Amino acid sequence: MPIILSPHRTDERIAGHSCLLRDYGPVLRIRPPEGGDKDRSTWFPTTIPATDEGRGKSWRVANIATAVVLFPIVKRQSESISLGYVSSRILESTVIVVGVVGVLAVVTLRQDLAGGGGADAALVGRSLVALKDQTFLIGPAFCAGFGNGLLLGHLMYRSGLVPRPMALIGLIGGPIACATATAVLFGVYEQQSPVNFLFTAPEIVWEASLGIWLVTKGFRPCPLITGTAPKSTQVPEAP
User: Fold this and answer.
1) How far apart are CA 174 and CA 200, in angstroms?
2) Closest C-alpha to 96, from 125, 145, 131, 68
3) The pTM is what?
4) 229: which DSSP letter?
């Protein structure tokens, strides 16, 4: 039986590597000083690694790259849902940029004040840290759960580009990720709590499995890829 190679193999590899970079690349975070107090209110002024800015950049670049290379393929299934998926990834990246700006502001204030500033500087630092936390809650939590989980999972499930049981994980994990992000937003539990990680795990498994599948195997041969999918026709409205 001949092996059918996908004509989009390069795009599939780019999308797969972007998914893995987004999920398992270093995550932008503000860390307490070595051996210091774990209380976040005391983290300003503190040492923030310069590489954290690059982590935020790699995350948003991976978001956009995944959407850009997948859109020409998945739009054949549903252009409106595909546009919604791309829009959610752009929104997620934009929100992440806001968090990165907050981190850069903390770095600038720390350098300008050189360890001084007193209570006012600490208040500003705490505010910027809180801004970063909220952007990473709204962006990677809500937007990824809705866009990458629900919308992309629906496109992959209906088209058969990947095994449907795998796409079903995204369809289930996406709404759960949005629900647990809502619980964190209203203070039910902390964002770093084991409960939140447990509820986010299906979305993580979906994104990781999608990335690994695209890198190693690529899309499955289906009418959407081979060009034999029936074109949808619109019935003209009666005058």
Assistant:
1) 8
2) 131
3) 0.72
4) S
